[in-house]
Amino acid sequence: MADTDLTGTQSGGDASPEPAPITSRFLFVDVAAQRAKQLRRGALPRVERHAAGPHKLERLAMEEVRQQVVQYTVPAGYLGKGTPA
């Protein structure tokens, strides 16, 4: 989890502004956990909060990851879909 960087760049030297969709639920959890930590430290939400929407910051972080508004860096050697590095 410490290798997940939410700075907005993608590994491999590619300057693409949009990361690939998350296909691994483990990567989804790691990215959402890092984003929830940022929200707890005072980061502004990137999606609009509704009265009927999620109240916990963890749920808000998960929603941000689902809507692909959180940019992340995949650790070097990550192959995806549960395959070992």
Structure write-up:
The chain is mainly α and 85 residues long. The chain has helices at 25-40, 57-66. Helix 1 (25-40) packs across helix 2 (57-66). The longest helix has 16 residues, at 25-40.
What descriptive keywords fit this protein?
2 helices, elongated
Helix fraction?
25-40%
- Determine the oligomeric state from the structure: single chain
Low-confidence stretches: none
Question: Helix tally?
Answer: 2
Mean pLDDT: 79
Distance between the termini: 14 Å
Helix/strand-derived class? Answer: mainly alpha
Strand content: under 5%
Q: What Rg, in angstroms, do the CA atoms define?
A: 13 Å
Q: Give the number of DSSP strands.
A: 0
> Main β-sheet, in a few words?
none
Shape: elongated
The sequence of SSEs as H and E is: HH
Q: What is the strand and helix layout of this fold?
A:
Layout: H1 25-40, H2 57-66
Helix pairs in contact: 1-2
Short summary:
With 85 residues, the chain is mostly helical. Helix content is 31%, strand content 0%.
